[in-house]
Structure formats: C-alpha cells, structure tokens
User: Which sequence fits this backbone?
C-alpha cells in the first residue's frame, strides 16, 4: 500500500537531483565540490520554500555509490521536515540506497489529491536508462489503482528528446512504453526527471514534461556534443492543485560562484 499524507491544497513539492556526492567530503567534478554546491542549493530552498510537503530526489545522488555519500546526502537533506523519496540514477547503486534508507525508496506515495510514482530507470553498469518489466508492472498497478487521484511520474532518465544530440543515446531506451501509458491514463498530469543537468519544460498533449538542473555542474542546453555550462546549480519547486493543475519553476543558488577546472576530473 502506498504511503498516504494529508495536506492542504496545493501540495508543495521540491525536487533535488544529480548531486553526485562522493565518500570524500571534498570530492569534486570539474573542480566543483559537489557537497558544497548541494549545501548552497539547500540553503536557497530553505530561504525560498517556507513550506515543503514532499521532497523528491531523482537520481545520481552519489557519484561513487558509497554508503558515506548516501549518508551525507541524507544528513544534508534532513533539514527539511518533510517526507522524502529517492530513486536511483546511473551513478547510483539501488541496493545500497535501499539498505541504508528503505523508508526513502518507496515507489508510490499518495499525498493530497495526487499520487507520486517513483520509477527506477537505472541499468546497472550503463549510462542509458530502461524501465524493466517489473518497473512497468509497478507503473501499471499504480495507474490502474489511482482512482480519482492525479498522477506525477518520476524517473531519472529523460523520456523525450530535449535537443541535446549527445544525450539522446543515454536517455530512456523504452520511452515509448512509458509514453503509451501516459497517453492511456488521463490521470497523469506530469512526468519529472533528472539526468540532463538542465531546465526543460514542455507541454505535450496536456501533460507537462519537466527536467531540472543539477545541484552541481550544469550541461549546456541544445549542445551537439558534451558541453557544460557556467550556470549556477538549482532545484525545482512544484505546486500540485486538487483539480490537477500544477505550477512549477526552477530556482538557482544565487550565492554560489561557479568556477570550473577543466584540467580536473570530469563528469
């Protein structure tokens, strides 16, 4: 049975994604210390989001899949007094996450008038994503039993073309299976993911498709080949209304100075 939480409308949700933490507190990507940048984003969230009903963490919480990195992520986000849900990305180890924090990796959460479905699209040892048969069954059951609840689907890998040619091969390989279910269930109002380290917001057939900046380095939108941006790390907020409407936006950690070192270890 999904966890249920009652909150006044609208439900206030925050998404954090792609923190890429290391066991080493000083671990960095392209010279950017990922724990430090996550801490700055969290500070921004705390200043701007005075109420949070649910925190969604959509993969690549860790870069090295170490217990210490997940403990650090859990401790840094513990400042939010809200139910939290994790799902794995291509740099994560789902079993390590589940062993450390089983209460955080639940697939289905009912909150207010909404059902949140967290789908594991990670493929062990691969950068691309795939929803295995078991995950599709989780999705089918969640949608079939949603009743009058509106649905927000979350995964790590992008299910649509975002205009970055180099990222297309490392997206969700069986996106058609996901999109067919979205089309079949009008309860689905939005699909939310990480992985792409950039902002994306598109309305397709009445469904909102959303990607969110990383809490560390950013990828340049519209790039043909791998390219990073000097934009600041960020997060997404969502307001989920009882009638199925949603409001959402992306905010950046304005107090964080991005200084990249292209001679240091990269992504």
Assistant:
């Amino acid at each position: 049975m999904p966890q249920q939480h009652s909150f006044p409308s609208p439900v206030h949700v925050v998404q954090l994604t792609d923190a890429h933490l290391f066991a080493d507190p000083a671990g960095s990507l392209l010279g950017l210390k990922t724990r430090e940048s996550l801490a700055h984003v969290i500070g921004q969230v705390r200043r701007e989001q005075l109420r949070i009903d649910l925190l969604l963490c959509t993969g690549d919480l860790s870069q090295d899949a170490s217990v210490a990195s997940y403990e650090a992520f859990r401790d840094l986000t513990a400042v939010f007094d809200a139910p939290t849900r994790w799902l794995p990305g291509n740099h994560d180890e789902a079993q390590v996450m589940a062993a450390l924090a089983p209460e955080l990796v639940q697939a289905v959460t009912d909150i207010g008038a909404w059902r949140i479905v967290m789908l594991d699209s990670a493929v062990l040892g691969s950068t691309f994503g795939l929803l295995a048969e078991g995950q599709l069954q989780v999705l089918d059951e969640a949608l079939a039993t949603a009743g009058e609840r509106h649905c927000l689907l979350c995964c790590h890998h992008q299910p649509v073309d975002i205009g970055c040619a180099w990222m297309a091969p490392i997206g969700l390989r069986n996106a058609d299976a996901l999109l067919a279910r979205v089309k079949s269930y009008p309860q689905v109002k939005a699909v939310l993911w990480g992985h792409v380290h950039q902002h994306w917001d598109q309305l397709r057939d009445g469904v909102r498709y959303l990607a969110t900046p990383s809490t560390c380095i950013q990828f340049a939108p519209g790039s043909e080949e791998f390219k990073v941006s000097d934009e600041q790390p960020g997060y997404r907020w969502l307001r989920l209304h009882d009638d199925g409407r949603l409001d959402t936006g992306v905010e950046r950690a304005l107090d964080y100075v991005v200084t990249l070192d292209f001679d240091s270890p990269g992504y």
